[in-house]
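fwd from M.: "can u put these together and see what the complex looks like"

so here's what she sent:
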Amino acid sequence: DTAVSQTPKYLVTQMGNDKSIKCEQNLGHDTMYWYKQDSKKFLKIMFSYNNKELIINETVPNRFSPKSPDKAHLNLHINSLELGDSAVYFCASSHPPGEKQYFGPGTRLTVT
Amino acid sequence: GQNIDQPTEMTATEGAIVQINCTYQTSGFNGLFWYQQHAGEAPTFLSYNVLDGLEEKGRFSSFLSRSKGYSYLLLKELQMKDSASYLCAVRGSGSARQLTFGSGTQLTVLP
């Protein structure tokens, strides 16, 4: 059974488009995260939700909007995509916040 | 804020021992994690230290000195499959207990 899953795995799109990435976890965790890993492999936190409440909101352009419909799901919507948004986006979960995190397989976003 | 330093690359030979260092300067500290990330894959948890000292888990051990802002990951009996990036991450002391990752150390194990 996949613990943390993300869709899609690959996403190629043009500048200016709007896209969404979905994440689901079946571990029963209360806390979920979105990370961005750039070409230099630097993994940076973007958002975190605990029990559907936003608890981490780093300095991210407001074109990025997370949504957590329930504890098992955390989606990321990106408006007006830019070249600099090209990266691998990882979803993760833990219980409670800040404990050992389980990462999804990542979504490789390429903006052309 | 957090500042975390790790060597960018290291090379070692199969069967050898390698030590990957991590130094940090933080405004609040509440634990340090090590993750392993193979190319094209997700990071996976290796170890966790919150108190000073050595934590051993099979071939992998991690050490922490809070007073020195220093940790290391020790890998023994290196295998080819240990070739990966090793990420040091510091947990902050805020209510969200946010992790800040270092840029990772790319370890190459040679035959």
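replying to her w this: Chain B is about 0% helix and 60% strand.
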